[in-house]
Amino acid sequence: MISPCKFEAEIKSIQPKPEIKDDLIYVGNKIVYEIVETGKNLIIYQYWCNEGRNICTEILQKE
Length: 63
Known about the structure:
By secondary structure, the protein is mainly beta. It has one domain (6-61). The chain is 0% helix and 48% strand. It has strands at 6-10, 30-38, 42-49, 54-61. A 4-stranded antiparallel β-sheet has the order 1-2-3-4, with no helix packed on it. Strand 3 (42-49) and strand 4 (54-61) form a beta hairpin.
């Protein structure tokens, strides 16, 4: 955890291998994510993607 709203993750393995060649998806790559919203059933976080040109948003639903 970098702060209460930011954390860093490292890619340890990729299963299955992506069909699209993406230089950002490789073992050992570290990505800083920022949690922007948490709710009863979801977590929304953002991170820089497309070689730092865009901010991507992902929504994880809790089960």
